[in-house]
Amino acid sequence: MVMNVWLYRALEESRARGFLGPGSIETQVEHALGFSGVWDELADSPPQRFLDLGSGGGLPGLVLFEKWRCGVTLVDSMEKRSKFLLEVLGWEGAPLKGEVILGRAERLARLPEHEAKFPLVTARSFGPPAVAAECAVRFLTINGVLIVSEPPDDHEVGRWSDEGLAKLGLRSEGRRRYGAAFQVLRKIRATPPQFPRDIGVPGKTPLF
Q1: Count H helices, E strands: the chain?
Q2: Distance set, CA 63 to CA 12, 56, 82, 177 (Å)
Q3: What is the mean pLDDT of residues 52-64?
Q4: pTM for this structure?
Q5: CB 176 within 8 A of CB 38
């Protein structure tokens, strides 16, 4: 994917404000595009909409939004980062159909306009596996997928508990590699009413 002026400018500004870590913009874009590579394995066309959990500095959400030009919901719990994302979505050249939601996923996922509305949720550096799974699951449609960026060691096992995922109505569909590593989780049944638990609880007492 050739970066257009809008995307490159947005990511450079994100770095200038301290929202992106070290490493070239091009390398970080390549990592973000790995999410689309995983999605392409699972579906014949781009999603009609997706949600990026903990969007922060805009990765992978802004990159995927530019590539797919579909509806996107960028979620972050920090006001400063959310204001930045909203700002860049208003710049010339930005795709249409983007929204930014400030708040905690545990609460936002229960709102009627977000609950079970997304065929895809992405998560990069959102938190430990159990936290990412619990905070994402209620956003997903049945048969929707959560794609999570993973540590690079392919021999690391035990991060995703089948028993813990089953409590949420999720099933692991394994690890994929597109340069970086990604975990795929599919929602196979409705989210039990107790999940996600109250704000902060998934992190303090993880399911696995």
Answers
A1: 8, 7
A2: 13, 13, 16, 18
A3: 97
A4: 0.96
A5: yes
> How many other C-beta atoms can be found within 10 angstroms of the C-beta atom of residue 141?
14
- Beta carbons of 47 and 119 less than 8 angstroms apart: yes
5-204 is classed CATH 3.30.1830.10: no
Intra-chain end-to-end CA distance of the chain, in Å? 37
For 178, the enclosing helix (H) or strand (E) is strand 170-178
pLDDT tens digit sequence for 157-204:
789 999 999 999 999 999 999 999 999 999 999 999 999 999 999 999
Strand order in the sheet with 49-53: 98-102, 71-76, 49-53, 118-123, 140-150, 180-187, 170-178
Contact assessment for residue 180 and residue 148, using Cβ atoms and an 8 Å cutoff: no
Widest CA span of the chain, in angstroms?
47
Per-residue pLDDT, averaged over 133-144, amounts to: 98
Q: How many angstroms separate the Cα of 140 from the Cα of each of 11, 151, 155, 160, 168?
A: 27, 23, 29, 18, 11
Written as six digits, the tokens of 98 are 């983007």
Residue 136 to residue 114: CA distance in whole angstroms: 11
Residue range 42-60: mean pLDDT, rounded: 97
Mean pLDDT of 61-73: 98
Return the domain boundaries, the chain.
5-204
Distance CA 208, CA 24 (A): 34
